Amino acid sequence: MNEEDKRVKNQTTLGDAIDKLMRAYGWDGKMKEIDVLSKWEEMMGRAVFLRTKNIYIRNRILHLEIDSSVMREELLYGKSIIIQRVNETAGAEIITDVWFS
Questions:
Q1: Do the Cβ atoms of 98 and 64 come closer than 8 Å?
Q2: Can you list the positions of beta strands (E) in 1-101?
Q3: Hey, what CATH topology would domain 3-100 get?
Q4: Of 46, 48, 31, 35, whose CA–CA distance to 82 is shortest?
Q5: What is the DSSP code (8-state) at residue 92?
Q6: CB 89 within 8 A of CB 43
Q7: Which residues are CB-neighbours of 47 under 8 A, at least 6 positions away?
Q8: Do 64 and 101 touch, CB atoms closer than 8 A?
Q9: How far apart are CA 77 and CA 15, in angstroms?
Q10: Could you tell me which of 24, 99, 90, 91 has the C-alpha nearest to residue 59?
Q11: Domains in the chain: boundaries
Q12: Is the pTM above the cut of 0.85?
């Protein structure tokens, strides 16, 4: 086996190398979180999106700051649906609870 054949055998695509790097540093979960947060309007609709003043994920908890007490109450009753939608969009269980402020 010559040197070129050895290199071809050991080659990895750039995408695979990036995926390995992200998993090694634990960034793959963070990228899923960022992706989900960027799709908030698509997941929840324009009305919820416009009333959401702050949104972030910390320790597998989705934190939402909603500027309407009425909408906050409605969303509180639909916590399980929010959790389901977020996790389905991420393709993995990235949140286990939702906290409102």
A1: yes
A2: 52-58, 61-66, 97-100
A3: GMP Synthetase; Chain A, domain 3 (3.30.300)
A4: 48
A5: S
A6: yes
A7: 71
A8: yes
A9: 41
A10: 99
A11: 3-100
A12: no
